[in-house]
Amino acid sequence: CTVISVSLSHLPLLQPLWWTSIPFFACELKAVTPYRRGFFCGDQSITYPYLEREAIPDTLLIAGGIVITGLTIALGECYRVRFRGVHSRAFVRNLYVSCLYKELGSFLFGCCVGQSLTNMAKLSVGRLRPNFLSVCNVTYASLNCVPGSYVAQVTCRQPEQKMVEEARKSFFSGHSSFAMYTMLYLAFYLQARLSWRGARLLRPLLQFLLVMIAVYTGLSRISDYRHHPTDVITGFIQGGLTAYWVVSVCLSPPSGAVGLGTNVLMYDLLCQSGLQDEIMSTMPA
Length: 285
Fold this sequence. Notes:
This protein is mostly helical. It has a domain of about 160 residues. Helices cover about 55% and strands about 0% of the residues. It contains ten helices and two strands; from the N terminus they run αβααααβααααα. A two-stranded antiparallel sheet has the order 1-2. Helix 2 runs parallel beside helix 7, helix 3 packs antiparallel against helix 9 and helix 7 runs parallel beside helix 9.
């Protein structure tokens, strides 16, 4: 499969990617600080220890989510172009680049949307992580507070302000939302592309394993004392809904494109759906 260079000025999908990633980068670059939420004295849900080692660190999450999904899509589109004889009417003349551009573009668009929503929730809610007091390096005894009373402000003894800021971003879990989105998107992709009839259980087996990887990633955040169970559950829901929304909206034919009595241009969906041949066969000659 030969990849050719395409001028960035002719890639309309880059604009949505930039716009949807603005909230994400604004949060990552510390342009916005999280909401300063207090706590009730004696609340045991924020007294867990801080563990240096994480079961699924950020680098592994990104590599497993983006790299594996991206490589699978790249190989899948290469196979379709070479052996399935797919067609495209997109502005990109190279067939492989056209198909890869649409599939990866839709996937990355969903990544930007999901992570922007996650970071916006983290900053606006400001829920304290289970290890907040340990990160803050204080105890209820040192605070000398009355059990059950609300502590609006606390002076942390942690010299690294970055760790304190991160300890205020519990809701909702970015790991669980990102893992569920990437793995579920890949499961949807396999559903549309993997049509080998020699092993009928191969596709559902792979899809099951992908979902289990996402579930394990989210559950590991609870055992690492990084998130509360409700944070992880909400992340699963957000990631799953984002994947379903991207696949439904970005990779489905526009309404009214078929059955108008004339030869209608298919809005460049020929590389985006697993029903290209069936759709084209319904169009009048």
